[in-house]
Amino acid sequence: MRLGSRTEGASRGPLGVAHAEESAIDVIVADLLHWFRAHGCDPDSALDRAQMHLEAELPEAV
Description:
This protein has 62 residues and is an all-alpha fold. It has helices at residues 14-38, 43-57.
């Protein structure tokens, strides 16, 4: 699943980006990490795997 740019739908100023970033963090913590823990999964391991997936999707620097 891909999301739009970090500023999409938010004010393009630093405060708008900071607010959007904080909202995204809240979603990760409140929903995803709690779900992993409730289902016996290790949240740190899940975050590590998610980071590896993200890095694999990023275009390589030329």
